[in-house]
Design goal:
about 300 residues; six-stranded mixed β-sheet; 8 helices; about 55% helix; disordered C terminus; binds 2-acetamido-2-deoxy-beta-D-glucopyranose
Length: about 300
Amino acid sequence: MWPLVLWLFVGSWCLGSAQLLLRKVKSVEFTVCNETVVIPCFVSNVEAQSTKEMYVKWKLNKTYIFNYDGNRNNSIVESNFSSAKISVSELLKGDASLKMDKRDAVVGNYTCEVTELIREGKTVIELKYRVASWFSPNEKILIVIFPILAILLFWGKFGILTLKYKSTRTSKKIILLLITGLMLTIIVIVGAILFIPGEYPVKNASGLGLIVISTIILIFLQYNVFMTAFGMTSFTIAILITQVLGYVLAVVGLCLCIMACEPVHGPLLISGLGIIALAELLGLVYMKFVASNQRTIQPPRNN
Ligand SMILES: *[C@@H]1O[C@H](CO)[C@@H](O)[C@H](O)[C@H]1NC(C)=O
Ligand SMILES: *[C@@H]1O[C@H](CO)[C@@H](O)[C@H](O)[C@H]1NC(C)=O
Ligand SMILES: *[C@@H]1O[C@H](CO)[C@@H](O)[C@H](O)[C@H]1NC(C)=O
Ligand SMILES: *[C@@H]1O[C@H](CO)[C@@H](O)[C@H](O)[C@H]1NC(C)=O
Ligand SMILES: *[C@@H]1O[C@H](CO)[C@@H](O)[C@H](O)[C@H]1NC(C)=O
């Protein structure tokens, strides 16, 4: 009785050591941005000295799609996965990852089976597809909020202008500002409607383009509001320069975001729009300050 138990125990211990240890990866995902898709499979205890001793098989769901026979140094690939391959040179380092073009990649559970002489191991990795969102919801909100805030601030200045500086000389300019301001408001609202919903890259990108590019109108409006009200001072020049810088940042950010598959330059774009809104705010504060000073003709110097 005892020898049998001992034999079973030692036997199972030996079998246990005859396992290849595969790193557990539950799932990997790919997006429209991945040119090639890599399904990882790493063996941590390879002892083989030559790939001749190794055999790699990959299964999708229940069917074998890829076989590598190290002894014959030969890969057999299922016809639907013609681009699938492993790096034979990495095999002895334990890397049996399957690489394929995106066009061949289908979602599902992939099984990696590695054999090294009598040792073997396998692991299942789920390949998932993720719809790449261009910007996160928070980024989208900021991208829309800043221009809208800037436009509201413009209308604030426009209000001060019509109340405090109205004269027959300026009424033509005020009408021009009114029309341009309305135009800008409509453009940005249309841009926001195109930009916010859904995952349609072309529609979203055109909305974003409308919003960002049209903010140049704000600089024109701000300049004309200042000129109509009290002309240029060093403050208004500084405010306008800030706004131009914000615009340049936003446009550079826009170009980088449109060129990259996944926009990593969102923060640049957003800070540009933020600076534009800040310049509008400074303009409004300054205008309010000047307007209230002008009522009391000359501000008292000492109490
Ligand atoms: C897709 O690309 C991303 C970013 O380059 C990468 O982290 C990910 O592993 C890739 N997915 C697959 C399945 O290859
Ligand atoms: C296996 O074949 C490839 C070409 O198909 C060759 O580059 C590689 O050196 C071969 N490896 C071995 C171990 O023979
Ligand atoms: C290969 O692709 C064809 C057509 O897309 C499909 O009908 C067939 O089931 C696929 N075979 C495997 C093994 O996935
Ligand atoms: C594998 O299974 C998944 C989920 O059941 C399915 O979506 C996918 O089409 C299957 N792939 C193949 C090639 O049969
Ligand atoms: C893959 O397997 C996991 C766990 O067994 C299961 O939850 C998942 O639905 C499977 N995925 C596919 C695409 O078949």
